[in-house]
Write a structure and sequence with these properties.
There is one protein chain. This protein has 2 domains: 4-113, Glutaredoxin, CATH 3.40.30.10; 124-228, Jelly Rolls (Sandwich). The protein is built from 5 helices and 11 strands. It has helices at residues 10-19, 35-50, 65-70, 96-108, 165-170, and strands at residues 4-6, 25-30, 55-60, 78-83, 86-92, 124-142, 152-157, 175-178, 190-191, 200-207, 221-228. The strands form 2 sheets. Strands 6, 7, 8, 9, 10 and 11 form a 6-stranded antiparallel beta sheet that branches. A 5-stranded mixed beta sheet has the order 1-3-2-4-5. The longest helix is centred in the N-terminal third of the chain and has 16 residues, at 35-50. It starts with a strand and ends in a 20-residue tail after the last strand. The model is unreliable at 113-117 (pLDDT under 50). Residues 68-244 form the PITH domain. Keywords: Disulfide bond, Redox-active center. It comes from Oncorhynchus tshawytscha (Chinook salmon). InterPro entries: Galactose-bd-like_sf, PITH_dom, PITH_dom_sf, Thioredoxin-like_sf, Thioredoxin_domain.
Length: 248
């Protein structure tokens, strides 16, 4: 799909995201009357044509309040990056060049965007950024097909630049995991070395192979569990959906 797909209501968002499959999806969260949103809109449309292998979606936080709340949108414009329905990155602000640079980082590591790619089977590289520094103590992974579930996983934190597969292969990880079937149970949590994850601003996860030596690694759900380094002051948040006192 070339161009920006506007999400008309909350019920459309998850099906549209599911349809993107393993391709990178960039979701712009916008708001009527938001001047920075208007300013970056032409560039966002241009990028959707420049990168035809990337899916571009637009969500108005007033029209799709449940979607905005579920994704913890606190300011606009906010751009969330997804692959396989998993959120892998975030970008905020109306700097078009910065947004394109972020897209380039993910496209370079996206085997689906290059038909001549020599990436070994099973490889997967995911980067997640946090809105504030956090302490992490565990993660949760789910895969609908255990044969395609990650096996050897290297986790890096606070990298100064984007990492490619060669970098991930040869670099020393913050922690390396060898996952087994019990790690993917519904009630299973994968412990992290808490002392090494005390001030985390971003996490890069490199999957080296999967359980069944399959061509493709599949992740249906990924989340990290932890706490903010400092207590959150709710008065610091910018309200972009609903009214004071409302819950979603």
């Amino acid at each position: 799909m070339v161009g920006v797909k506007v999400i008309g209501n909350d019920s459309e968002f998850q099906p549209e995201l599911a349809d993107t499959g393993s391709r990178l999806a960039v979701v712009k969260f916008t708001m009527a009357g938001c001047r920075p949103c208007v300013r970056i809109s032409p560039a966002f449309n241009m990028l959707s044509n420049k990168y035809p292998h990337v899916i571009f979606l637009e969500v108005d936080v007033h029209v799709c309040q449940a979607t905005a709340a579920a994704n913890n949108i606190s300011a606009t414009p906010t751009f969330l990056f997804f692959r396989n329905k998993v959120r892998v990155d975030l970008y905020q602000g109306a700097d078009a060049s910065g947004l394109e640079e972020k897209i380039k980082q993910h496209v370079e590591n996206d085997p689906g965007s290059n038909e001549d790619s020599d990436i070994p089977k099973g490889y997967l590289l995911i980067t997640m950024s946090f809105n504030q520094p956090v302490k992490l103590f565990s993660m949760k992974l789910l895969s609908s097909d255990f044969a395609q579930a990650p096996k050897c996983v290297k986790i890096f934190i606070n990298l100064p630049r984007s990492m490619d597969f060669d970098d991930a292969e040869r670099s020393e990880a913050t922690q390396t995991l060898d996952l087994a079937e019990e790690d993917f149970k519904d009630d299973g949590l994968i412990p992290l070395r808490y002392v090494k994850f005390q001030n985390v601003q971003s996490v890069t996860m490199f999957v080296k192979n999967n359980q069944g030596d399959e061509e493709t690694t599949k992740i249906n759900y990924l989340t990290f569990i932890g706490t903010p380094v400092q207590a959150t002051n709710m008065n610091d948040f910018k309200r972009v959906v609903g009214k004071k006192g409302e819950s979603h």
